[in-house]
Specification:
The protein is α+β, with helices and mostly antiparallel strands and 341 residues long. The protein is built from eight helices and 14 strands. It has two domains: 195 residues, Immunoglobulin-like; 88 residues, Cupredoxins -  blue copper proteins (Immunoglobulin-like, Sandwich). Helix 2 runs antiparallel to helix 3 and helix 6 packs across helix 8. It is elongated and about 100 Å long. The protein binds heme C (HEC) and copper (II) ion.
């Protein structure tokens, strides 16, 4: 085998890997991954995306220049048999000035857009924004709409094209509020109120999660963002503002309602006009949500029954008591929960 042929095999392998990598990246860009930070759907996310693109430009430029110079130097000036001792030099003012100024300039190009983006995204939310108070709980998110007098859990509804100003608090430990398509994370810190605001630019349902370890079920602390058309949002608000549905007292759901007060659910859950509990999610319209328990399970009778039978088996450490319910009690309570549209 000639030397050139021996070299061509790793070269071909490297080229193949490059092509594969490029294809994988192209696939990522084409597909709209719902929990990707690279698929912005709000002004805040776009501000961060533009910053990332600018920084990537400088980073790639520096990488190519430095690595290029390194490779050229290594190839050209490597020691060869019989080559003379290299010339010894000491100091080169022009070169030293250049390699001090160039990085300083590059750092300026990096710093200016970064600081500008920080100021822009940390500024006060514009007046007239829709206000929502977010409360992190071990292990679910609560959303309060003070202007609309609505409280819900795990599912945040916002109208498309309107700025939403979130104030973030926690009922217990540190959490981190993260809706990747909306933009960066914000920590939720005890005895502090943090803020984040954004204007969603496309209708859809997008997943989010807690991004700060907050205890045993941290990995089960999800949420969903519903970006609705203004019409759908108004309809949702109007439905949530209704009093809870009153089941017929002889129906299964009616029995479930009586049981709700009997077995102690009322101590932890609010149902408007029925019970004032604040430990667990507000259940006034729980039947209208698509998911339960920190968006860990779909809101389906089967999952609700399993949840009521043994919350800790569904979600390790869940702060809902296992009340040791019997199957007929679970059936009635499930019917009641699902009736609360
Ligand atoms: C000790 C307080 C406590 C009691 C008692 C309690 N719950 Fe809960 N419940 C919670 C907490 C906390 C959660 C949220 C758990 C999580 O997602 O980590 C929850 C979640 C739920 C959910 C899911 C709602 C959602 O939006 O995620 C339903 C439904 C529910 N409880 C129904 C009941 C019923 C019915 C009873 C009575 C049989 C009951 N709970 C008793 C604390 C309680
Ligand atoms: Cu967490």
């Amino acid at each position: 085998m000639t030397p050139s042929r021996r070299r061509s095999k790793p070269l071909r392998l490297a080229a193949g890997l490059l092509v594969l990598g490029a294809l994988a990246l192209a696939g990522c860009a084409l597909k709209d991954y719902p929990q990707s930070t690279l698929t912005p759907h709000s002004d805040l996310a776009w501000a961060i995306q533009h910053l990332l693109e600018q920084l990537t430009f400088w980073v790639v430029l520096i990488f190519v220049l430095v690595e290029g110079m390194l490779i050229v130097t290594v190839m050209r000036f490597r020691s060869r048999p019989g080559s003379p001792e290299p010339k010894h030099v000491h100091g080169n003012t022009a070169l030293e000035v250049a390699w001090t100024i160039a990085p300083a300039l590059i750092l300026t190009f990096v710093a200016v857009p970064t600081v500008l983006t920080i100021f822009k995204t940390q500024a006060k939310a514009p007046a007239g924004s829709l206000e929502v108070k977010v409360v992190g709980h071990q292990w679910w998110w609560e959303f309060q709409y003070p202007g609309q007098k609505i409280v819900t859990g795990s599912e945040l509804h916002v109208p498309v094209g309107r700025t939403v100003a979130l104030s973030l608090e926690t009922a217990d430990v540190i959490h981190s509020f993260w809706l990747p398509i909306v933009g960066g994370k914000r920590d939720v810190v005890p005895s502090r109120t943090n803020h984040i605001w954004f204007t969603a630019d496309s209708v859809g349902v997008f997943p989010g999660t807690c991004a700060e370890f907050c205890g045993i079920s941290h990995a089960n602390m999800h949420m969903k963002l519903f970006v609705d058309t203004q019409k759908d949002f108004d309809a949702w608000v109007a439905a949530q503002q209704q009093p809870p549905i009153e089941p017929d007292s002889t129906s299964l759901a009616g029995k479930g309602k009586a049981m709700f007060l009997e077995v102690g659910c009322a101590a932890c859950h609010t149902i408007s006009g029925l019970s004032p509990g604040i430990i667990g999610p507000n259940l006034t319209h729980v039947g209208s949500r698509t998911s339960i328990a920190g968006s860990t399970y779909p809101n389906h009778p089967e999952y609700v029954s399993q949840w009521l039978a043994n919350p800790q088996a569904r979600k390790p450490g869940a702060l809902m008591t296992n009340l040791g319910l019997k199957p007929d009690q679970i059936a009635a309570l499930t019917a009641y929960v699902e009736s609360l549209k």
